C-alpha cells in the first residue's frame, strides 16, 4: 500500500526553469573575440568582469554583515540579560528594533523584528525597551488559519512532516494483516487536521482494492469496511469542532472508509495524563501515536515535576500498546537537559544556547520562505506576521517560562525524542525505503516553485532518522519512528527458566 501524494504540479515547470536558467546567462558581445581579435580587448573585458565580480561580492559581503550584525545584537541582548546586565540587554534590543523591519527586503531584518517583539513582550530581556512601539494586536482566528494554510501550500516543511508520518502509519496498519481493519490514531497536536486527508484517501483506496480482491476470490476478508478513528488534542473546543467538520466532510466522499473523530482540549501539560478517553483503546485496532510538530505550549512546566511528568507521559503512551509512535520534531527549537543555573540570576545557563538554536531555526525558515514567494508577496507577509511570528512568540514565551525556575531543581524542557530515549520503554525503528523515497519525491515536486531545490533530505542514525534541511544549514525538522521495546533474549530466558 502506497501513500497518495495529493500535490498539484505544473507540467511545464521544468521547461520554464531551464529557460530561466538560460535567460539568466547574459553574454556580452565584448566578451566574444574573433580569431583575429586582439588580446588587449580581451584583457580589458576580463578586467572589467573581474572588477564587476568584486563589486558584487563586496555588496553581498556588506549585506551579509548587516544580517549578521542584527543576529549578533539579538544574541548580545539575551547574553547580557543572562549575565544580569539589564542596561546592556535593553540597549542591544533597542538597536535591533531600530534596524530591523517587518517589511524589510531581507529575511534577516524580518526575523530579527519578530524576535525583538517577542523578547520585548517577555521577561527574558526587559519589558518595553526604549523606543519600543505599541505591540500589534494578535491575529484573529481566521487570519491564523489563512496564514497556516498559505504556509502549508508555499513551503514543504509541513507537507514533509505529514506525508512522512502518514506513509509510516500506512505501513504500520498494513503490517497488521488483512484481517486488521481498524486504525486508531492518537494525535497529541491535531492542529487544523491538515495531515489527515491524504491518509483518509490512501486508506480508502486500499479498502476499495481489498474489497475488489475479496469479491473476485470469493473471500469475505474485505467485507468489513476499513475504519479510521482519530483522537486529537487541540487548543479549544471551537477549533476542534471546526477540524472535525473539515475532516468529516472530506471523509464523506470515501464510502469505503468509516471515519470517527474525538477531540480533546489540551488545557495544560497534564491533559494527556488526565483524560481517560485516550485509554479506551480497541484491542482489535492498530494503534498509532502521532507526535508531529507538537506545540510549544505543552512544555510549560518546570523543575523535578517535569522529569516525573515526562516519565509518566512515556508510560501512558506505552500503555496504549501502540504499533508505532511517530515523531517529527523541530531541530533547534530550544530546550536542554541539565539543571545548571546562572549565579545570581535564577536563570538557566542554557538560556543563550536555547535561544540561539531557536533563532537559527527560524532564520532558516524565513530564508527558505523568502525564496518560495516573491519579495513583494502579500502572502509571505501574512505568513510571517500571522503564523511564523506567532510561533516565535510562543517559543519565547515557553523559553521565558522554563528559564525562570528559580530553584536548584529547575531544568530545561527535554525534547520529545529525549523523553522517548530516556524512558527505556521504546526503541527506534528503521524508516522504510518507501518512506524515504516519498519524502524525496515530495521535495522534487515542490522544488520547481520553492527555493530552486534548496531543501534536501538527510538520512541518519543507520536509517532510523530522516531530516529536512535547508541548503547547507543544519536540519529544520527530524522524523523518527518508535515501537515498544522488545524484551531482550536473556531477560526472556530468565523469565522462562526462573
List the helices and strands and how they pair.
Elements: H1 13-24, H2 39-82, H3 86-99, H4 107-121, H5 141-154, H6 157-174, E1 182-187, H7 196-216, E2 226-234, H8 237-251, E3 257-265, H9 271-274, E4 285-292, H10 303-319, E5 324-330, H11 351-372, H12 378-402, H13 416-423, E6 426-429, H14 433-447, E7 455-460, E8 465-470, E9 475-484, H15 489-497
Parallel strand pairs: 1-2, 1-4, 2-3, 4-5
Antiparallel strand pairs: 5-9, 6-9, 7-8, 8-9
Helix pairs in contact: 2-3, 2-4, 2-11, 3-4, 4-11, 4-12, 5-12, 6-7, 6-14, 10-13, 11-12
The count of helical stretches stands at 15
Give me the secondary-structure category.
alpha/beta
Largest sheet: 9 strands, mixed
In total, the number of strands is 9
Helix percent band: 40-55%
Main attributes of the structure:
498 residues; alpha/beta; 2 domains; nine-stranded mixed beta sheet; disordered C terminus
Amino acid at each position: 500500500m502506497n501513500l497518495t501524494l495529493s500535490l498539484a504540479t505544473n507540467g511545464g515547470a521544468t521547461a520554464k526553469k531551464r529557460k530561466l536558467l538560460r535567460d539568466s546567462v547574459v553574454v556580452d558581445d565584448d566578451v566574444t573575440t574573433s580569431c583575429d581579435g586582439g588580446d588587449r580587448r580581451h584583457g580589458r573585458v576580463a578586467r572589467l568582469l573581474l572588477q564587476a565580480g568584486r563589486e558584487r561580492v563586496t555588496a553581498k559581503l556588506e549585506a551579509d554583515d548587516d544580517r549578521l550584525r542584527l543576529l549578533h545584537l539579538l544574541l548580545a541582548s539575551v547574553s547580557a540579560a543572562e549575565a544580569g546586565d539589564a542596561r546592556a540587554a535593553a540597549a542591544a534590543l533597542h538597536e535591533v528594533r531600530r534596524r530591523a523591519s517587518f517589511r524589510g527586503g531581507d529575511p534577516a531584518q524580518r526575523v530579527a523584528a519578530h524576535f525583538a517583539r517577542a523578547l520585548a513582550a517577555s521577561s527574558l530581556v526587559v519589558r518595553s525597551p526604549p523606543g519600543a512601539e505599541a505591540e500589534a494586536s494578535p491575529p484573529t482566528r481566521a487570519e491564523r488559519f489563512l496564514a497556516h494554510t498559505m504556509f502549508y501550500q508555499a513551503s514543504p516543511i509541513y507537507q514533509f512532516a505529514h506525508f512522512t508520518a502518514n506513509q509510516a502509519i500506512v505501513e504500520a496498519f498494513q503490517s497488521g494483516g488483512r484481517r486488521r481493519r481498524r486504525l486508531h490514531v492518537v494525535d497529541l497536536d491535531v492542529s487544523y487536521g491538515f495531515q489527515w486527508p491524504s491518509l483518509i484517501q490512501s486508506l480508502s483506496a486500499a479498502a476499495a482494492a481489498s474489497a475488489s480482491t475479496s469479491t473476485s476470490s470469493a473471500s469475505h476478508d474485505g467485507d468489513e469496511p476499513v475504519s479510521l478513528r482519530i483522537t486529537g488534542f487541540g487548543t479549544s473546543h471551537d477549533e476542534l469542532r471546526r477540524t472535525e467538520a473539515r475532516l468529516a466532510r472530506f471523509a464523506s466522499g470515501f464510502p469505503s472508509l468509516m471515519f470517527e473523530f474525538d477531540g480533546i482540549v489540551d488545557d495544560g501539560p497534564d491533559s494527556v495524563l488526565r483524560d481517560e478517553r485516550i485509554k479506551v483503546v480497541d484491542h482489535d485496532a492498530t494503534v498509532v501515536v502521532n507526535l508531529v510538530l507538537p506545540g510549544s505550549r505543552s512544555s510549560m512546566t518546570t523543575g523535578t515535576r517535569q522529569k516525573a511528568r515526562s516519565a509518566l507521559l512515556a508510560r501512558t503512551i506505552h500503555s496504549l500498546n501502540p504499533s508505532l509512535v511517530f515523531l517529527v520534531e523541530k531541530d533547534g527549537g530550544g530546550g536542554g537537559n541539565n539543571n545548571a543555573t546562572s549565579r545570581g540570576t535564577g536563570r538557566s545557563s542554557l538560556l543563550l544556547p536555547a535561544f540561539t538554536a531557536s533563532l537559527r531555526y527560524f532564520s532558516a525558515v524565513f530564508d527558505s520562505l523568502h525564496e518560495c514567494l516573491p519579495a513583494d508577496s502579500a502572502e509571505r507577509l501574512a505568513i510571517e506576521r500571522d503564523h511564523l511570528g506567532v510561533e516565535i512568540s510562543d517559543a519565547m514565551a515557553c523559553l521565558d517560562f522554563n528559564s525562570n525556575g528559580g530553584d536548584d531543581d529547575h531544568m530545561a524542557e527535554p525534547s520529545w525524542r529525549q523523553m522517548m530515549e530516556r524512558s527505556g520503554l521504546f526503541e527506534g525503528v528503521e524508516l522504510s525505503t518507501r518512506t524515504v523515497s516519498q519524502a524525496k519525491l515530495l521535495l522534487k515536486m515542490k522544488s520547481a516553485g520553492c527555493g530552486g531545490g534548496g531543501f534536501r533530505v538527510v538520512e541518519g542514525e543507520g536509517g532510523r532518522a530522516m531530516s529536512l534541511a535547508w541548503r547547507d544549514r543544519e536540519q529544520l525538522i527530524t522524523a523518527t519512528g518508535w515501537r515498544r521495546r522488545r524484551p531482550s533474549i536473556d531477560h526472556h530466558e530468565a523469565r522462562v527458566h526462573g
